[in-house]
């Protein structure tokens, strides 16, 4: 698991904006320009759409907290998630909610690209981003990483103008960070991937064990 420390929106803005204040490439997306010196403030997170798969009235709700830069999260989506989807999500037994965690600006950018096409394409975009994590996350500096994320977006059918608008949306970036902090604090999330099963926290574990927990909930 990858551990993280909860930070304020202003702190994330500083981390994300550092390159842009000192870098020389004006064509790179800077979703947090203007936020670097912001003070912690109330942010309306109601505009953020929950990304959900499965039946709305499913008897079990499973929330996953994941980072797009977390290798363990990529491993979960390459294997256990596919089994979970086949066994429980597609059969109407589990409502699956995916919530992003932001360790760094790269994970935030990946989230903004994944959300760019809207809820209908989000999970397909997530699959592409997780599958290619070792390539885009290790592509080099910010310019190389963001270009790899653009490529994933274009592969999914997004136009360049649409991608740039999403990546440059400073208000959306700040709101996403506030939303993540709000959720992580409420559910006591300390690592990724982490899960909340019908309101109870569940650590990352072998799929057989997670399956047994879900089946126990279905029997109640």
Automatic annotation (TrEMBL):
Residues 1-20 form the signal peptide. PROSITE patterns: THIOREDOXIN_2. InterPro entries: Thioredoxin-like_fold, Thioredoxin-like_sf, Thioredoxin_domain. The keyword Oxidoreductase applies. May be required for disulfide bond formation in some proteins. Residues 10-219 form the Thioredoxin domain. Transmembrane segments: none annotated. It comes from the Bacteria. It holds the Pfam family Thioredoxin_4. This is DsbA family protein. Belongs to the thioredoxin family. DsbA subfamily. The keyword Signal applies. Keywords: Disulfide bond, Oxidoreductase, Redox-active center, Signal. The lineage of its organism: Bacteria, Pseudomonadati, Pseudomonadota, Alphaproteobacteria, Rhodobacterales.
